[in-house]
């Protein structure tokens, strides 16, 4: 079998994560090579169509996860309903969409979700593809009250309007940045799908956890650094946390199985990710609680 070539297309690449994955696959005897394309939203379509001619599989990064359904009309009903994908792979000559993050979060919740209070609400931070994934997973697990907060109000309102068309009898509510500190402690899960970047001041409003039950769980999709301020602040007060690399490890193994038919050791791969990410220096000073 010839060497498999795959690519990630994103505005900012996940180079560390996918280089670890490529190396892991090579170590297991599956010859592969990964490349990275950092593109602007204006140029995404051109690069995406070119990639479909050149590569065996494509990973899709932010902010393009909600745009893929415009290229594929005949797709799995779950992906169409979800409205988000992060991978494109070919089966029997036909390109298919999948959401590795959706699979990863499902597995995480399956492992830790016993004893959830489904009468409680959850708080989702963000309004992109990651937020769609979080909503889908938690609705399937039985939650019917979902709060959504986002820096950009219009983007959040558009997401909520779309979700209300898809999910009946689910109570969606937008919570502005100013109102976060006034939320009662009725949320049992916090899912952060927004990046740790300068300008995302919304994260600092979360560090007080006034909105979260003492028995709650914090899930941070952030991949680098391994210990975000959100995770560290939560653990300091005894709140259970799930880090981004843990969600990613499940999703990557699902992608490998779907694309290449390989079943590999998720725990071993997860440990590789952890070791790699933990060595990366990251200045947290601008993001710490004031």
Instruction: List the helices and strands in order.
Output: EHEHEHEEHEHEHEEEHEHH
| Biggest sheet, spatial arrangement of strands | 8-7-6-9-10-11
Oligomeric nature of the chains: single chain
Q: What is the SS-derived class? A: alpha/beta
Low-confidence stretches: none
CATH homology group of the largest domain: NAD(P)-binding Rossmann-like Domain
Count all strands and give the number: 11
How many separate domains? 2
| Computed Rg | 19 Å
Amino- and carboxy-terminal Cα gap: 55 Å
Largest sheet: 6 strands, parallel
Count up the helices.
Answer: 9
Helix content: 25-40%
Written overview of the protein:
The protein folds into 2 domains: 4-99 and 246-278, 3-Layer(aba) Sandwich (Rossmann fold); 103-243, Rossmann fold (3-Layer(aba) Sandwich). It is built from 9 helices and 11 strands. The protein is of the alpha/beta class. The mean pLDDT is 92. A 6-stranded parallel β-sheet has the order 8-7-6-9-10-11, sandwiched between helices. α1 (15-27) packs across α9 (266-278), α4 (100-112) packs across α5 (129-140) and α4 (100-112) crosses α8.
């Amino acid at each position: 079998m010839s060497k498999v070539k795959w690519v990630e297309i994103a505005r900012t690449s996940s180079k560390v994560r996918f280089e670890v994955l490529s190396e892991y696959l090579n170590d297991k005897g599956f010859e592969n090579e990964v490349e990275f394309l950092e593109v602007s939203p204006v140029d995404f379509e051109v690069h995406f169509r070119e990639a479909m001619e050149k590569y065996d599989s494509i990973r899709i990064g932010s902010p393009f996860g909600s745009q893929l359904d415009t290229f594929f009309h005949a797709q799995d009903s779950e992906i169409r309903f979800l409205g988000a994908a992060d991978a494109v792979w070919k089966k029997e000559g036909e390109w298919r969409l999948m959401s590795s993050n959706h699979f990863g979060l499902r597995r995480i919740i399956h492992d830790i979700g016993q004893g959830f209070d489904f009468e409680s609400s959850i708080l989702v931070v963000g309004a992109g593809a990651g937020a769609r994934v979080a909503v889908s997973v938690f609705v399937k697990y039985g939650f019917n009250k979902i709060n959504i907060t986002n820096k950009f109000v219009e983007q959040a309102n558009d997401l909520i309007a779309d979700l209300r068309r898809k999910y009946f009898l689910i109570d969606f509510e937008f919570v502005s940045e100013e109102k976060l500190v006034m939320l009662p402690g009725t949320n049992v899960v916090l899912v952060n799908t927004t990046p740790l970047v300068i300008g995302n001041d919304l994260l600092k409003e979360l560090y007080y956890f006034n909105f979260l039950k003492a028995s709650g769980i914090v899930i941070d999709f952030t991949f680098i650094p391994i210990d975000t301020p959100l995770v560290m602040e939560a653990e300091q007060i005894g709140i259970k946390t799930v880090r981004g690399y843990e969600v990613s490890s499940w999703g990557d193994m699902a992608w490998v199985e779907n694309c290449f038919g390989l079943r590999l050791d998720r725990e071993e791969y997860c440990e590789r990710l952890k070791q790699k990410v933990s060595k990366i220096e990251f200045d947290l000073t601008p993001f710490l609680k004031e």
